[in-house]
Amino acid sequence: YSTQQLMEKDKAHFTHPWTVFDVYKHEGALPIGRAEGCYIYDTDNNRYLDAVGGLWCNNIGTGREEMADAIAEQVRLMSYSSPFVDLTNVPATLLAEKLASLAPGDLDHVFYSCGGSTAVDTAFRLIHYYQNCRGKHDKKHIISRKSSYHGSTFAAMSIGGKAGDHPPEFDYLSDTIHHVSAPKFYGDSSGKTEAEFLDALIQELEDKIIELGGEDSVAAFFAEPILGAGGVIVPPQGYHQRTWELCQKYDILYVSDEVVTAFGRLGHWFASADEFNIQPDIITCAKGLTSGYQPLGATIYSDKIHQVISEEGHGRCFAHGFTYSGHPVACAAALKNIEIMERENLAGNVSELAPYFKERLESLLDLPIVGDVRGRGFMWCVEFVANKDNYELFPEELDIGKRISNLADGKGLIVRPIVHLNVMSPPLNLTREDIDFIVDTLRSSIEEVVAELNSEGY
Ligand code: PLP
Fold first, then answer.
1. Is there a single domain that holds both residue 162 and residue 284?
2. How far is the CA of 425 from the centre of ligand 1 (A)?
3. Closest ligand 1 atom number to CA of residue 148
4. Mutate which of 58, 162, 259 for ligand 1 pocket (most atoms within 8 A of beta carbon)
5. Ligand 1 centroid to 199 CA: how many Å?
6. Is the CB of residue 160 less than 8 Å from the CB of residue 144?
7. Is residue 20, in this structure, part of any structural domain at all?
8. 300 and 373 together in one domain
9. How many CA within 13 A on the CB side of residue 223?
10. Could you tell me if the CB of 299 is within 6 A of ligand 1?
11. Average pLDDT of each block of 10 consecutive residues along the chain (458 residues)?
12. Which pairing describes strands 177-180 and 282-285: parallel, antiparallel, or unpaired?
């Protein structure tokens, strides 16, 4: 099929995630035919550096022969077996042991699912079992943050706090799920210093806990170490520690949603403990767990939770699970993926090159519409503003992020536009030369858009 034919078929039948259902507005998706390392190739064989790593997931790079072999070998040996009750499979067992050894503290137990959303839903149900087994039947309120993204299944969507994800005409779990402010200092118009801004966030969280009934009512706090889809928001220094301490004070489970930040993205296996120095009760992960070679999610939870449900549950069944929990092929892919990350010290490459990535991206701040550059490790965004002095944003219909990323596409670079941002989470084996290409291409794309905007009277 020609690229044009494929685009027409796609537009006619494939409903993509997060797209406008308007055939006239939507120009159609570009078919990608193959991928190798950091690069993807469209069906006309044009090459692009994929600085989004698929969708924040392609940590080891695509097209690895040994991943193909590990997956094929497992398919030949046993493509599927049931995970229910008294059956298990070897890759699932070994991966659970491996994850328990990599996860911080007493996070020794693993519940598998199909991706990030189902890992978050699993955490949600586990929390309720835990609190109920302790006899705390009213301890059912959840707190998360505005601008957070935790997935698209019902509970995960409700826990997420991105503006627009909870349209008033649709039901979601609003009685027991509550959102406090996002820890985004850039653009804050209150005139506070960053330290005062942090104090206010902590006060707001404590006020919310008390308002909901405190220790007797609040079951868990959900947080991404760095908010990803909500705009790569890196909280002020000390935020994680202080929110975690509040959770300790009020006996609230701390859930770190590391679907994006784990498996080397910030230079560590898990960012919550190693980058931000906190000990969560539950970590949810997916994406980099298999580097996208297979779909897999994992909810890694503490011995404390396991003990309470085991001892106080009095034989109660955790009535939760998926046909594909612990899928042998996905688990075999995860084991090989982790082996490659260890052997090639990919997290070490992130730690080594992150300062260079940061420095190069920050050089874009001299451009008139680049308001902020933020991130850590290999997780970055560039925020565009109409006026740097007062943080005035461009009108949404201008679609500034997309306008710039479209130009970058044409120059062989894929970045992810999110309204007025361009977001990056490239494979972890990126080189200095790749970083130079990303930043130089972004610069020329932004400069072109600035020239266009000037001629349009902005
Ligand atoms: N949690 C976070 C922090 C995410 O970024 C995402 C997806 O981007 C999810 C959960 C949902 O993961 P999935 O799309 O695999 O269901």
1. yes
2. 14
3. 3
4. 259
5. 29
6. yes
7. no
8. no
9. 29
10. no
11. 92 87 73 96 97 97 97 98 91 98 98 98 97 95 98 96 85 93 96 97 98 98 98 98 98 98 98 97 98 98 95 84 97 98 98 98 98 98 96 92 97 96 98 98 98 89
12. unpaired
* 289: CATH: 3.40.640.10
For ligand 1, atom 2: residue with the closest CA: 150
DSSP string across 420-448: TEEEE---TT--HHHHHHHHHHHHHHHHH
Statement: the pTM of the whole predicted model exceeds 0.95: yes
CA distances 346 to 71, 87, 211, Å, are 21, 34, 45
| Domain termination residue (choose one: 308, 326, 343) | 343
- Give the chain's domain count: 2
**How far is residue 373's CA from residue 394's CA, in Å, rounded to a whole number?**
17
Is residue 23 a part of any domain in this protein?
no
Q: Is any atom of ligand 1 closer than 6 Å to the C-beta of 228?
A: yes
CA of 151 to the centre of ligand 1 (A): 5
On whether both 421 and 338 belong to a single domain, the answer is no
275 lines ligand 1 (CB under 6 A): no
Q: Which of 59, 152, 159, 260 to mutate to test the pocket of ligand 1 (most atoms within 8 A of CB)?
A: 260
* 73 shares its domain with 55: no
Query: In the prediction, which pLDDT does 456 show?
Result: 87
Residue given tokens 């193909």 in the structure block: 68
Whether 225 lines ligand 1, by a CB cut-off of 6 Å, is no
Q: Could you list the residue range(s) of the whole structural domain that residue 269 is in?
A: 66-343
Query: Same structural domain for residues 279 and 380?
Result: no
Q: Which of 290, 344, 339 is nearest to 62 (CA)?
A: 290
- pLDDT tens-place string over residues 393-417: 999 889 999 999 999 999 999 999 9
* 3-state DSSP assignment of residue 35: strand
**CATH number of 399's domain:** 3.90.1150.10
User: Is 13 contained in some domain?
Assistant: no
Residue whose CB lies within 8 A of the most ligand 1 atoms, among 159, 287, 299, for a mutation test: 287
The pair of structure tokens assigned to 181 is: 């402010």
Q: Is residue 183 part of a domain?
A: yes
Structure tokens at 416: 């992810």
Please state the atom number of ligand 1 nearest to the C-alpha of residue 297. Answer: 15
Residue ending a domain, choose from 325, 343, 361: 343
- Do 378 and 328 reside in the same domain of the chain? no
Q: Are the C-beta atoms of 266 and 225 separated by less than 8 Å?
A: yes
Question: Looking at the structure, do residues 364 and 277 belong to the same domain, yes or no?
Answer: no
